[in-house]
Amino acid sequence: MDNERIREICLALPHVTETVNWGHHLVYWAGDRDIGGKMFAMTDLDGAGIGVLWFHCGAERFHELLEREGICASPYLAKAHWVTIERWSALRLREIEDELKRAHALIFEKLPPRTKAILALPEKERAKAIRERKKKLVARTKAPSKPSTAEATSRAARTRPKKPR
């Protein structure tokens, strides 16, 4: 078992995309991240981190998996019921495949209705909708942001003439 086999398993699931995040993690998303997709698994690309595979397992399965040797709660993600496999031998290939399919199904179920609607479109329309959404996100990040209410209030207080006492 290795990252390439995990990649094959994950990308074979419906509506899965991958990104490299945090410098060295290959993250698998149920639905495109830019349209509201959510991550369901990730692997460590350079082997420098804790564990070799992280995935969402749901509240019911979380404690069962923690009882197995070589599996621990994922740092920063344990509240969301994610576990970390510390070494590839902690689970058999078939078990890993089943867990990744379950993780995908659990996360896909939680996607917002708008995201599910986009994913239900025919492939060409879906690709167009995703491209348009990405363009909007890029435009939003390039546009100057409006000052917050606190900034506007403090700026107004500084420029307002003081009343004589």
Give a concise summary.
The protein has 165 residues and is an alpha+beta fold. The chain contains 6 helices and 6 strands; from the N terminus they run αββββαββαααα.
Describe, in plain words, how this protein is organized in 3D:
- The chain is an alpha+beta fold.
- It has a domain at 3-111: Aspartate Aminotransferase, domain 1 (Alpha-Beta Complex), CATH 3.90.1150.30.
- Helix content is 45%, strand content 18%.
- It has helices at residues 3-11, 58-66, 93-109, 113-120, 123-142, 149-159, and strands at 16-21, 25-30, 38-44, 53-56, 71-73, 82-85.
- Strands 1-2-3-4-6-5 form a six-stranded antiparallel sheet.
- It is extended, with a radius of gyration of 22 Å.
- The model has no long low-confidence stretch (mean pLDDT 84).
CATH topology of the domain at 3-111: Aspartate Aminotransferase, domain 1
Please indicate the percent range of residues in DSSP E strands (runs of 2 or more). Answer: 15-25%
CATH architecture designation of the domain at 3-111: Alpha-Beta Complex
Calculate Rg over CA atoms: 22 Å
Topology (elements, then pairings):
Elements: H1 3-11, E1 16-21, E2 25-30, E3 38-44, E4 53-56, H2 58-66, E5 71-73, E6 82-85, H3 93-109, H4 113-120, H5 123-142, H6 149-159
Antiparallel strand pairs: 1-2, 2-3, 3-4, 4-6, 5-6
